[in-house]
Structure formats: C-alpha cells, structure tokens
Write a structure and sequence with these properties.
heterotrimer; A alpha/beta (about 450); B mainly alpha (about 325); C mainly alpha (about 280); A: about 450 residues; alpha/beta; D-Maltodextrin-Binding Protein, domain 2; 7-stranded mixed sheet; 12 strands; globular; C: about 280 residues; mainly alpha; MetI-like fold; 2 domains; about 0% strand
Chain lengths: ~450, ~325, ~280
C-alpha cells in the first residue's frame, strides 16, 4: 500500500515535472511564448524596407526607423552598421561572441551577410548560422524554386544550407541613352547590346566613345566584379594560410591600366562609393555606362541621377556576372525560432512576396518561375526610371548563366585590399611590384594568420 | 598654541588627497600597460570567429615589427608633423610679435584672436571629413580653382603623396597656430618693457629687436611648445585616418604610427599591437626625458619669473 | 624720433596677413554651411558660393535618421564631456593641493612620477585598457570615457602651478586655526581661489573630450551610446544607402555648432586661459 502511494506520488510528480518542463520549453520555443525582441543585424535599410513591404505580420515601424512592431507585439530591433571598412562584421562578431552570455532579448536572432563574406558565417566550425533544417525549413522542397547558385553560396562545406536570400544579383550594363545616340546614332538596347557583347567588341566601342570625348566607365573598380567573378580557385583554400591571387585579377589590373591610359575611364574617379563616383552618375558627367545589378540601379544610380526619367537603359554586359546578394541567417541561440523561420520563408520562398519585391523595388528576386514571368510581363515590370524598359528581360538570362566563383571567408578583405593596393599603381603612384608588396602587407595586417601571398606566373 | 599646531602631522592628508589620482592612474593606465606589455610576447589574435593563442613567442613580435614598415611610418609621422609645425611656429611667432607691438596699432585684436583660435575647437574627425570632400577631385576647391582659371585640369590633391601630406600638415597648422600664438604672446608680454626701451634707445630696428631680444628670452616657452607639439605629433591619428580612409594612401605614405597601431587593434591582433605599443612607449619615454630636463633647468625658472611679472602687470 | 614709414608698412602687412589667416579659418565653416543648406541633387551639380534653401529639410532628415542618431550622440557627448570636465578639474585640483600644501615622504617621488607620465600617449595603453574594461563589464558604456579623466597629469600640472603662484600657505594655516577640517578647507577655501584655473581647464577638458575619437571608437559598440566623433567617422564609411551628401554636411554642422556657441560665449575666458597656461610653463 505504502509502496503504491509512493509510486502514484512519483508518477504525479513526474507528470507535473513534465508539464512544467513542457510549459517551460514552450515559453522559450513555442509560438505564443517566444522572446519579445527580434534583433536583426544588417548594414542598411534594404532588408527592413522589404520586410515592411511583404511580411504580413508587420504592424508599424517607429519614426526613426530603428524598431518595427509586429502584430503580435513582438518588436524587431534593427541594428545597422556600415559595411565599409569591416565595421559591420566587427560589431556582428562581437555580438556573436557574446551571444551565450546576454539575456534572451539581447540575443542576435537574424543576421545578414553578403556574398563577399557569407562563407565566414556559414562555416561549419563557427556554427553561428543555424542549418535551415534545424528551423524546420527543408531546402529541397521549401526553396526548390530558388536559383541553385544562391543555395550553394549559402551552404557549408558539407552542403548543408545555412542561409537563404530573396535576391539574386545578375548584373547588366546600364548606359546613357543620349550618349548612345550621339556616338552610335541609336539608343536601342538590342543595338547597344551588340556593341558591348564581349570584351573585344567592348574595346572597339570604347575607342568610339573616347573619340567623341566620352568615358566608357567611370572607374577601374567598375569592371572588377566581372573579372573577380570568374576566378577559378578561391582566394584562400579551406584551412590554408596562403592567399592565391588568380590570373583573372591580374588581367583586371593590366586591362584597367590599358583602358585608363587610353582614356576609356575617367582618371579623376578613384574607385567606387565616393563623391567623385557619385558625381559620375550625374547629368554633367561624360560617363557612358555603369555595370550594375538590380540593386545598383535602384539604390545608387537612381538617387545620383539629377535629370529626367528615361535617360538610362539596360542591356547585356560584356560578360555574365553576379554582384552582391544579401543572405538571411538564423543565428544560433535565437530565442525566436518560429518568427525567424516565418520571416525567412516569407521573404525568400514565397513567390507572391518576391514578385511584389521585384515590382516595388526593382530587385531581381530569387524564385526562378516568377522571374521568368516578370521577364515576359512588360505591363507590370517596366521600370519608370529606365523609361518603360523591362529590365527583367535582360536580367533573367544572365541569372541562369551565372557560375558562382569559388568562395572563401577572406573574400571581402582580399577584394577590398587588392583594389586599394592597385589603385595606387593605376594612378601611377607606385610601380607594379610595389603595389604587389603593399597588398601583401595589407592582407597580413588584416588577417594575421595569412603567411604568404602567391601571385600567378 | 603655536608650538602645538606645528606638532600636528598633516602628512596623511597629502596621501589622501593624491590617492584618487594615483588609484585612477593605477587602474586605467598602469594595469592596461602591464597587460599590453605582457601580450607583446604572445601570438594572440582573432581569425574570423576563432581566437588564436595566446602562445608565447618571445621577442618574435618585436622582430617582426622591426622588419615591417614601422620605421617608414615613423618617418611619415615625423614628416607630417614637420609640415604642420614649421608654418605653425613661424606664423605664431610673427602674430604674437604683432599683437604685442603697440606701434602697429592692430585693429580688432580681440576679433582676430577669437577667429584664429576657432579651428582648434573643431573635432579633428569632422575637420578631416570636411577637407576630404572639399579637396576631392571634383569637389568645391577644384571647382573654385578652375572657375578662377588658375588650373585647367582638376588637381588630384588626395591622389599624390605631397598633396595628401600637405593637406594633413595644413590642417594641423590651422588647428594649432592660434593656440601657439596666444601662448607665445603671453611669453613676450612677460619680457620686461625696460629691455625693449633700452634697445630702442640703442637704435635697434624691429628685426634686430625680435632676433636678439625677444627670441632668446622666450626660448623656454618655445622649447615647451616644441615638446608638446612633438608629443601631439607622435599621437597623430584622426586627421590622416579619416582623410585617407584608414589606408594612409597613396602607397602608405601618410600612414602614421598610431594608424598602424590602430590597424592591429582592429584586426584584434593583441600580440603585435602590444609590441608596437611598447616601441611607442619607448619613444615617448625618450621625449619624456627631454620634458623632464626642460621643466628642471634654469631657463625655465627665468621664464617663470618673467611670466609672473607679466601677470602682475596685467592685473595692475 | 624714428620715422613712421616702416611701421605703417609693417602695420599694413600685419593686417593683410591677419585677414588672410582669418579668412582661411572662417572659409571652411562657410563652405560647410553652404553645403549643408543644399540638397543632394544641388550638390551633384557642382559647387556654389551661395547657400541654398534646403537647410531645414536636411536638418529634419538628420533628426529622423535612426541609423545615425545625431541628437542622441550630442546628448552622449554632453554627458561624457561635462562629467569629464567636472571630475577632471576637481580631482586635479585636489591632487595639486595635496602635493602643494602637505609635506610627506613620497611628495617628491609622486610629483616626479606625474611629470613623467605627462607625455605618455593614451594610445599606448589602449589595448590593455580595452581588455580591462571588458573584464570589468564596462565595455560599451560611457563610464570608461569619464572615470579615467581623474588622472590627468597636464591638468594637474596647470593647477599646481596656479596654486604655487596664487595660494599663500598662511591662508591654509588661518583656516586650520579656525578649526576647519582639511576637506572643508579644500572645498570652501581652496576651490573658490582656484576658480579661474578650474574654469579654464574645465573648458579645455570639455573640448578635448568632446573631440576625442580614439578611445570612444574602441569602447563604444551600440548606436545609442555613440558620441559625436564616432558618428561622424561612421558617416565617412557610409553605405550606398546613405548617399545624401546634403545630409552629411548637415550632420557635421550639427556636430560642431554646440561647441562653437560655447566658444563664442566663453571666448574671453578661453583666450585668457591659454595665456594663463602660457604663463605657467
């Protein structure tokens, strides 16, 4: 009798314990009891604007833009740090290292990464980006419509996908119609496309432009992506301590030098993202074209253009390339896994949402079927800025032909520093060998574990 | 009563009063310094999200630094400092002499003093940022020069070695010449008017008077200005950092020692940053020795006496 | 008597030089103002010597941009600079008085020591400092920007010289006879006497702290705690989303206006203060 009482008590206690336990786990993981704050680390307002536009749970955003309230009362806190100079990653790394020690509402829930450094965060050992399957997302079915190369980019060495993106960034050539008319006698995108279809034709065209006093591109940095995208080996192999500079990169240096000396590029524009470069997109500039993916046209070219709509048009680039792409990662340790899953699915897998992003922001989005649809649909996807041209008709074929260059965790530093070091060379400040050794110094300063730089023969 | 008071020992109050200073110094400067020195003997940095080390490597960091471009950055720092300091001291001497010379009848002295001191108040970072946009190739300065017809092609200030260095020097000059002027003015005012009167009777012209009387008499303050400026120069960071976007462009010719230190701090390379700090500490130690010598030599007492006199007169 | 000729010539030369120098000092502020009053599109078209009509629009853009909380930054800067100025001058005066008015064994050693650390660059200990405050849990807070200013050798030296020249020991003795405690003597007699020196050093410390970039850049992490110089520096590395140059100029303007106002109000004291400093050396 006594024994039975004890065992009943025990069972009851266990049941109670289980209840308490289950209740507890629901408190931190279930739908109703998730954390009250979703912290999102990103480097500009791009992601925020898209969430506001298509995530159905959004109620309102505070006036200063730092907090977005969801309908269930959860707040999204936007932690924005600039990408340049690695500031964003430093701040993010600091937060990730403290992830275990901070309170639930202080934890990073979602962070974004760019193609240039996505590898650092999807790293299997670092384990800071959760595998999508752990969230309950099955890439094979839920993300089946995404462009394959974006899925590969966001996967670790074992092919486990640890991030997902709403955008895919095939690049085009955007040119000034008035200059095209002046030099070629036509501004028709098909005809101009013929004039820039490959590098050889492009050079002849550049000569034509220069003869009339126009620059083909603003800066040598503008063409970098096209070369950088076609490297055959990663900058740094997994676990290696040697930076391998690809022949394609050196081709960029040599070609840029030639173009600069021939006057095809504007000597006064030194690199990108500076006041001079911005000004080259203004109406008083003599620059014929820029190489931009969809976001570049929307965010960079459009605000810098001070003339009428319809002055610019897009056509095929001399070589297919991809520039950028923001990946959404669920951060290990998040206290809002359900919300995070919901956001990732709403923003990267929902065809309707992505079509809306495409029509609202002119983004080239990451569902193949809808992009093919957009390419046909001139009525809805004609761009006002491009004077009614449907850019998707040009983006779509580029996207399908993109071959992703092999990535490494060091890409951003390498890309940034090689451009900086050879800027001096291209401007005639230093000779070739000096630029090389400056790159070596800078890269080893940035990444102390790098011990050697290997140049192509 | 008197005798009794003298017996009270107040010395403990001396210790109590200086305690906060030394406590604060010990915690916020001394401990960090020891820490810095300790890590200078280790390989210790962050790679991506992983921490490497600390592994003891002895003097390896020091040797590596000596082999790096550290000396070059030291020379850069020196050059940048000289470009700013020479015009600064020359102009300041000239202005100070003018301000105290009643015969020149300078109008609006107060206005000029206020204005020339103004740039000293502006944070170097904002100032550098402003210069960066103004001197960019297609920026306002080039627009002005071109519309005046002084130059046909825009001048690439920040693209050339001496353009960038001159800009840094010019900014340092603008920020500090007002301050130096006012300091030197005080020193000149401290010189006894009798000496000037005597010199006038002897038929000295103003150049002679300046070079053979004023200059030697204010030498201690000149030396002090030099030393404080050298120390400021050693710490030069904000202006070139922001003007060249932390790159010390072109060809790292405007990279200063502290910028170099900062780039190691940024890549979380504690070992190398520590070793570099120790080198910097040694250099500032040598400079400190000079300061110590100057604050203890006789010349300075002479100037102090003169300065006190000046103050009395100002009050009187 | 001497001829007037050379003096007239020198006077004209002096005036011209002064006007040129003043022009250089003021020119940059003027350009800043002009650019801050123009829109991005206007600025794209090139330089103008006359201000535009966009100042208010730019100002409201700055005020409403959450990713660059400029007004929050000004508040933080005010807190840091104000507190630093207060504790720095108080404790420096206290230390100076301690070393000046009392005789004790380590007096000379302590004085020499402070003079020796006068020239030590902050940056040298920056790395250890960062680790220390991280361990103390003060990373990303304003405290490490304020508390260390208790130990400011240069302010101490200034105070010490001032006491030397203006505080007769008899005054202290008299206070003791009246039965005043040592701390009370310091707070109610010594502090008022050193007021001019404190005022001057308070202003210098304030300005120095307001403009400090290196330490805050290491210590501060979150947007809401950033001080003005870090915000300005972040602007320099702005992303392609923040291409509005009009806004950038306006932010710089907003950042320096408070300090200019303080200066213009107090310029008399500041200039007198530099002189005071000059006298001491």
């Amino acid at each position: 009798m006594k024994k039975r009482v004890v065992s009943i008590l025990l069972t009851a206690a266990m049941a109670a314990g289980c209840l308490a336990g289950c209740g507890g786990s629901r408190g931190s993981g279930g739908n109703g009891g998730e954390g009250k704050v979703i912290n999102i680390y990103c480097w500009n307002n791009e992601f925020k604007e898209r969430v506001e536009a298509v995530y159905p749970e959004v109620a309102e955003t505070s006036k200063d833009g730092t907090i977005t309230k969801l309908k269930d009362g959860t707040e999204i806190h936007w932690i924005v740090n600039p990408n340049q100079d690695g500031v964003y990653q430093q701040k993010l790394d600091e937060a990730l290292l403290n992830q275990a020690d901070v309170s639930a509402d202080g934890k990073v829930d979602i962070f974004l990464s760019e193609t240039d450094y996505v590898n650092k965060y999807t790293d299997i050992d670092a384990n800071v980006a959760m595998p999508l399957t752990d969230l309950g997302i099955d890439p094979a079915t839920d993300l089946a419509d995404q462009y394959e190369f974006t899925k590969v980019t966001a996967s670790d060495v074992n092919g486990v996908q640890r991030g997902s993106t709403w955008q895919c960034c095939p690049g085009l050539l955007v040119y000034r119609r008035d200059i095209a008319r002046d030099v070629f006698g036509t501004d028709d995108p098909q005809a101009v496309g013929e004039k820039v279809k490959d590098w050889e034709t492009m050079e002849a065209t550049a000569r034509e432009l220069a003869a009339k006093g126009y620059y083909t591109f603003a800066s040598y940095a503008d063409t970098f992506r096209l070369y950088g995208n076609s490297i055959t080996e990663p900058w740094v192999k997994q676990g290696d301590i040697v930076v391998r500079v690809d022949q394609k990169i050196m081709d960029w240096v040599n070609d840029s030098k030639e173009w600069l000396d021939a006057g095809y590029l504007d000597k006064t524009v030194k690199g990108q993202w500076n006041a001079d470069w911005n000004q080259a997109m203004g109406s008083s500039s003599k620059v014929f074209a820029f190489l931009f993916p969809a976001w570049g046209i929307d965010f960079t070219l459009k605000p810098n253009w001070d003339g009428e709509n319809g002055a610019w048009a897009v056509t095929n680039p001399p070589q297919e390339y991809n520039w950028g792409g923001s990946y959404i990662h669920a951060c290990t340790g998040t206290d809002n896994p359900e919300h995070v899953k919901d956001i990732i699915l709403a923003l990267t897998a929902n065809k309707e949402n992505l079509l809306k992003i495409s029509s609202d922001f002119s983004d080239f989005t990451n569902t193949q079927s809808s992009m093919r649809q957009a390419a046909e649909d001139d009525a809805n996807f004609a761009s006002e800025f491009l004077g009614g041209q449907n850019a998707f008709a040009y983006f779509s074929p580029v996207a399908e032909n993109i071959v992703m260059a092999p990535l490494s965790a060091y890409d951003q530093g390498c890309v940034e520093l090689i451009q900086n070091s050879f800027s001096d060379y291209l401007q005639g400040q230093v000779d070739y060998d000096r630029a090389k050794s400056n790159f070596e110094t800078a890269i080893m300063e940035r990444y102390p574990e790098i011990k050697q730089v290997q140049w192509p023969d | 009563m008197n005798a009794k008071r003298k017996k009270i020992d107040y010395s403990k109050w001396g210790y109590i009063f200086i305690l906060p200073f030394f406590l604060s110094f010990f915690i916020f400067s001394f401990i960090p310094m020891i820490d810095t020195v300790r890590y200078s003997f280790f390989e210790y940095y962050r790679s991506g999200l992983k921490e490497i080390g600390p592994n003891f490597v002895g003097m390896a960091n020091y040797v590596k630094l000596l082999k790096s471009d550290m000396i070059k950055y030291g020379v850069n720092t020196l050059i940048l400092w000289v470009i700013g300091f020479i015009p600064q001291i020359v102009i300041a001497l000239m202005l100070a002499e003018w301000f105290v010379d009643a015969r020149l009848k300078i109008h609006g002295t107060q206005f000029f003093k206020v204005v020339i001191y103004l740039p000293n108040l502006i944070m170097a970072s904002a100032f550098a940022m402003l210069f960066f946009t103004m001197f960019s190739t297609n920026g306002p300065i080039n627009a002005i020069l071109m519309s005046l017809g002084w130059t046909k092609e825009p001048i690439d200030f920040l693209g050339s070695v001496w353009g960038t260095r001159s800009l840094v020097g010019f900014m340092n000059f603008l920020m500090w010449f007002g301050n130096t002027t006012i300091m030197l003015m005080a020193a000149i005012m401290g010189i006894s008017p009798d000496i000037f009167e005597a010199s006038e009777l002897d038929g000295c012209n103003s150049f002679q008077r300046f070079f053979s009387i004023t200059l030697p008499l204010i030498r201690p303050i000149l030396a002090y200005t030099l030393i404080t400026s050298v120390i400021g120069g050693l710490q030069m960071f904000d202006v070139p950092q922001i003007l060249t976007n932390a790159q010390g462009t072109p060809n790292r010719t405007s990279m200063t020692l502290i910028m170099f230190l900062n780039s190691h701090l940024k890549s979380k390379n504690y070992g190398m940053a520590g070793a570099l700090s120790v080198y910097l500490f040694i250099v500032s130690g040598i400079l400190c020795f000079f300061v110590y010598r100057m604050t203890n030599n006789q010349d300075l007492d002479g100037s102090k006496a003169a300065a006190k006199k000046a103050k009395k007169e100002k009050r009187g | 008597m001497k001829s007037k000729g050379p003096n007239v010539f020198r006077s004209v030369f002096a005036h011209v030089t002064l006007i040129i120098l003043s022009f250089m000092c003021l020119f940059f502020f003027y350009i800043l103002f002009v650019n801050a009053s123009r829109s991005h599109a206007d600025l794209q078209k090139g330089f103008s010597a006359l201000p535009g009509a966009f100042l208010w629009k730019n100002l409201s853009n700055v005020a409403n941009d959450g990713s660059f909380p400029m007004f929050r930054g000004i508040l933080n800067s005010l807190i840091v600079s104000g507190s630093s100025a207060a504790i720095c001058t108080y404790f420096s005066a206290l230390t100076a008085y301690g070393l000046y008015a009392y005789n004790f064994k380590l007096k000379k050693v302590a004085f020499t020591f402070i003079m020796a650390i006068l020239v030590m660059p902050t940056q040298v200990t920056a790395m250890g400092f960062l680790r220390l405050i991280t361990n103390m849990g003060m990373y990303d807070s304003l405290l490490p920007l304020i508390i260390p200013s208790i130990a400011s050798p240069s302010v101490f030296y200034f105070m010490y010289s001032y006491l030397e020249s203006s505080l007769p020991m008899s005054l202290v003795e008299a206070a003791r006879i009246d039965g005043s405690g040592e701390f009370r003597t310091f707070n109610s007699i010594i502090l008022p006497i050193t007021k001019p020196a404190i005022a001057v050093q308070a202003i210098f410390t304030f300005v120095g702290s307001w403009n400090n970039y290196f330490v805050p850049a290491l210590v501060i992490q979150s947007k809401t705690r950033m001080t003005v110089p870090i915000l300005i520096a972040t602007l320099r590395g702005a992303d392609y989303m923040n291409f509005d140059m009009g806004k950038i100029y306006t932010m710089i303007l907003v950042a320096i206006v408070p300090i200019i106002l303080v200066y213009l109000l107090l310029s008399k004291y500041i200039i007198a203060g530099v002189t005071l400093g000059g006298v001491k050396e």
